[in-house]
Specification:
The structure is a single chain. By secondary structure, this protein is an alpha/beta fold. It has three domains: about 150 residues, Cobalt-precorrin-4 Transmethylase, domain 1; about 90 residues, 3-Layer(aba) Sandwich (Rossmann fold); about 130 residues, 3-Layer(aba) Sandwich (Cobalt-precorrin-4 Transmethylase, domain 1), CATH 3.40.1010. The protein is about 45% helix and about 20% strand. The protein has a five-stranded mixed beta sheet, sandwiched between helices. A four-stranded parallel beta sheet has the order 4-3-5-6, sandwiched between helices. The two termini are about 35 Å apart.
Length: about 375
């Protein structure tokens, strides 16, 4: 592991970023000031997942190694993992995708986990499994399994298509497969659930609205009697809290003050919350614009962007190559869910203050490249 960690550090470490952190997170160079959030970039769970993937490449160098989807949601890191000779399977593989596996092969489970049924199939083939699932994710699984055992439906605040949410939903079925779950994305969907709890409604219409977001035999008339709120660990804490408060109120009103049919566990991951809190603090300082660096399919990074755009011009970039020129940049629009090009993004003014943060799956070397690119575009290369 010491050899592996040295290799990982070589790929992703940045002396410049660490130096700026040691100076209080601020760098003034020429007439440009760069301010970094206090907490950003790789979290412990991501570092552990990458270390284990690198270690698997060394320990099992004589065997085929496959990864279920992406190790984390960062294209640069995933490209580096593939460069190690690790083959990537689809996150939701079809039977023909798994048909290539043999008992002597090694399969890596990514940081956000995988669906229980998929793990069972891999075990049935006989593959060696290297499980890099984050401990915070497994804590959520423990809660939803408990719900299933006690006949409580898990209301999962998350993105139904996200690997972590699908993995959590599969554990909400319980050991016997009889557990129930419902996935809600936001307050709009939560209000629809609360309305059904309070006033009943048309079960068919409800199931149509939440198609693909419920357990197979979900019946709102039966399975909204006792509920427990859990969440994808990378969601906005404030939104999860608002969701659980709204649902608790609906249950309390329906049951005339009795809250015994409602439960809630705070399962937002600590690193996600630290990065959100640090960004709120950064936004309390004078800034002209904010750059958020990370994979476009990274949930925790997207929520940082949502926080930033409420306050000032915010650009979500994958890496420094997106900063095409001082006039033009490519960035991800979280509303259209596509990469777009914006013009005149870099204000032409003598003194400029740029805030920078990054999601938990973004390595420091990409942040350094972004810093250097901004300073180059400002005419003062570092």
């Amino acid at each position: 592991m010491s050899h592996v960690q040295a290799q990982v550090e070589k790929h992703y470490h940045s002396e410049l970023v660490e130096s700026i952190r040691a100076q209080g997170g601020s760098l003034r160079f020429g007439k440009t000031t760069l301010r970094l959030a206090k907490e950003f970039g790789f979290c412990y769970g991501v570092e552990r997942a990458i270390d284990l993937a690198y270690a698997a490449g060394k320990v099992f160098s004589d065997r085929n190694i496959y990864l279920l989807g992406e190790i984390i949601h960062n294209p640069d890191v995933n490209a580096q993992i593939e460069a190690l000779g690790i083959h990537c399977l689809p996150a939701r593989p079809k039977p023909e995708d798994l048909a290539i596996l043999n008992p002597e092969d090694v399969v890596i489970v990514p940081a956000f986990g995988a669906e229980a049924s998929l793990i069972a199939l891999v075990k049935e083939i006989g593959c060696q499994i290297v499980d890099t699932t984050c401990g915070d994710v497994m804590s959520v699984w423990k809660r939803v399994r408990q719900n299933a055992t006690e006949g409580v439906t898990s209301i999962i605040h998350g993105k139904a298509e996200h690997e972590e949410t699908r993995a959590t939903a599969s554990r909400a079925l319980g050991a016997d497969g009889q557990g129930q779950y419902l996935i809600v994305l936001d307050m709009d969907e939560t209000r629809a659930v609360a309305d059904y709890i309070l006033h009943d409604g048309d079960p068919a219409a409800f199931l149509q609205r939440f198609a693909g977001k419920t357990s197979e035999h979900f019946d709102p008339a039966l399975h909204l009697k006792r509920i427990g709120v859990a969440n994808q660990t990378t969601m906005l804490r404030s939104e999860t809290e608002a969701i659980q408060t709204h649902l608790r109120s609906a249950i309390t009103e329906r049951d005339k003050g009795d809250t015994s049919h409602f439960r809630y566990f705070d399962t937002i991951c600590g690193a996600t919350q630290d990065r959100q809190d640090s960004l709120f603090h950064l936004l309390s300082e004078p800034l002209d614009l904010l750059i958020v660096v990370g994979g476009y399919n990274s949930s925790n990074t997207t929520h940082l962007v949502e926080i930033g755009i409420q306050k000032l011009p915010t650009y979500f970039i994958r890496n420094a190559s997106c900063l095409t020129s001082e006039k033009e940049l490519r960035h991800f629009d979280i509303h259209s869910k596509s990469e777009i090009t914006s013009c005149d993004w870099l204000p032409y003014q003598p003194d400029l203050i740029v805030g920078i943060t990054a999601g938990a799956s973004c390595p420091n070397n990409l942040i350094e490249e972004t810093i250097r690119r901004i300073l180059t575009l400002r005419g003062t290369p570092l």
